[in-house]
Specification:
505 residues; alpha/beta; TIM Barrel; six-stranded mixed β-sheet; four-stranded mixed β-sheet; 44% helix
Length: 505
């Protein structure tokens, strides 16, 4: 694939302030693995599930009434959609949309050939070389947000980079959303676990961005999972109602371990995931036509001996490719995959599993890649070293997605005119013009000879990653926020905390 210009450079070892973090504008073609007949069979299976089996929509009578009005067959809490109804409703969801950041230069475009990388989401534990494995707290949470701000290959900061377990559950969403708003100027997600928490997130986004920008743009999204198999509870429907009802975005992700929450075969689980996500997309458009929606997919294999999920295996890798094709056919932005591993530390297992998982996610064309960095222990733990190691590889993937430069300068005819046969190109004019940006360079890999490596302490990559995140935090600078906005946000949080009782569940 040709392109006419290219700029590639490694992140400096000690950047001052937060470096630019442009999202990926993909040039490389998508990796499509299935033929037309195979895709049609999967789509037909999804229609069978939506029409003949149906999905449960529980604990939200308003959702059932909306489905009935839209033309679905509603039997108590089972919703069956006549063939074609769901896809017709999904047509109003945008195939491409922009999530506006408080720093407009960091806004991201989600959908089409664009790809956005966001960190791990949800672990209650953290791990680093100094403190070991422990429950996450607010200090850890703020450090992770600051690191996400400083890492240029992370374009989005997500939300639950770890659970701050030292803050009451009933109130921690306020502190988490505020930390993303204050310590980063990249786009982020909001809370979803309870309707009022989703509403608090939306209300805070309105304060941060102002009424005009909020009412005309997507400035915040929620990320929520269906209860596979085939159950959509009120956490999902109420999150859709809050976010989409306000014109904001929602990411809905069926979480399926094949053999447990879906059939043991990958094809059946893929079709089930498609059906669950499309039904939720249709509901988002019933709530508000045109609301941004990201079709999610989290498929994993599992050990049928122990029941433990497995990551980076051939089946979920193939599923990433296939769901990419299916999402493009329906015209919806896609979230899938990530740098996933079952490993407990940032070891060789973590590297192999994460690399296969992340590479397939990128090649599949996932537009929003949550869990792109920091995931350990099947999602139970956020690794500080793993975060910066994964981010380093994401930077390499971003370079890869730029394709091959075949401009006149890249073809280097002048270099051949200058260098004689059997000579070398190290000192020629073309090399001197291009050497600083010619190759992507890792911030963490050590390519020097063994003597140099030993002189510098014989450090492995995990130790180098530890030193890198420490250095990044030393160089962190809080992005400026208008004083009146900061005051309004802190006042809102203080009022809501006074209204909410402490609860640890």
């Amino acid at each position: 694939m040709a392109r006419t210009s290219r700029s590639r450079s490694a992140a400096p070892d000690r950047p001052m302030g937060a470096p630019p973090s442009p999202y990926v504008r993909r040039v490389l073609p998508f990796f499509d693995v299935l033929d037309e007949e195979s895709l049609r069979r999967l789509e037909d299976q999804a229609e069978f599930i939506m029409q003949d089996i149906g999905l449960e929509f529980r604990d939200d009578p308003l959702a059932l009434e909306r489905w009935r009005t839209a033309g679905a067959d509603v039997d108590e809490t089972r919703v069956r959609a006549p063939r074609g109804l769901v896809r017709e409703l999904c047509k109003t969801a945008p195939s491409v949309f922009t999530q506006v950041a408080r720093n407009p230069e960091r806004s991201v475009v989600i959908g089409g050939s664009n790809q956005v990388f966001a960190p791990v989401y949800g672990p209650p534990f953290v791990r680093d070389l100094d403190g070991g494995r422990r429950y996450g707290n607010m200090a850890d949470f703020e450090k992770l947000v600051k690191l996400c701000q400083m890492l240029p290959s992370l374009h989005h900061t997500g939300l639950v980079v770890t659970e701050p377990c030292d803050v009451p559950v009933s109130k921690r969403h306020l502190d988490m959303v505020f930390a993303h708003m204050r310590y980063s100027d990249k786009p982020h997600l909001g809370a979803i676990t309870e309707k009022s928490r989703a509403q608090d997130s939306v209300d805070m986004a309105r304060i941060l961005h102002g009424e005009a920008v909020f009412n005309s743009s997507c400035v915040i999204m929620g990320n929520v999972n269906t209860n596979s198999p085939l159950l959509v509870d009120r956490v999902v429907t109420e999150a859709i109602e809050v976010y989409c009802g306000a014109g904001q975005g929602i990411v809905v992700v069926p979480f399926i371990l094949s053999g447990a929450m879906g059939p043991v075969t990958s094809a059946a689980s893929i079709a089930q995931a498609l059906a669950e996500a499309l039904m939720c997309c249709a509901y988002s458009q019933i709530v508000r036509p045109g609301a941004p929606f990201v079709l999610g997919n989290f498929l994993s294999s599992m050990s049928l001996k122990s029941g433990a999920p497995t990551f980076g295996m051939p089946e979920p890798v193939l599923s990433n490719y296939v769901i990419g094709q299916l999402a493009r056919r329906v015209g919806l932005p896609l979230r899938c995959g990530g740098s996933l591993t079952a490993s407990k530390t940032a070891d060789a297992q973590a590297a192999y599993e994460s690399a296969d998982s992340a590479h397939s996610t990128v090649m599949a064309g996932a537009n929003f890649m949550l869990h792109a960095a920091g995931w350990l222990e099947g999602g139970l733990c956020t690794g500080f070293e793993k975060l910066v190691m994964d981010a380093d590889r994401l930077s390499a993937y971003q370079s890869l997605m730029g394709g091959l430069d075949v401009s006149d300068e890249a073809l280097a005819r002048s270099a051949y005119e200058e260098v004689e046969p059997a000579g070398h190109f190290l000192g020629c004019s073309h090399t001197m013009r291009n050497f600083q940006t010619a190759f992507w360079e890792s911030s963490l890999s050590d390519s020097e000879n063994v003597e140099s490596w030993e002189e510098r302490g014989a450090k492995d990559m995990e130790r180098r990653a530890y030193e890198r995140w420490q250095s990044l935090l030393e160089d962190y600078e809080e992005p400026p926020m208008a004083p009146e906005t900061l005051e309004a946000l802190t006042a809102f949080i203080a009022r809501r905390k006074q209204e909410l009782p402490d609860a640890w569940y």
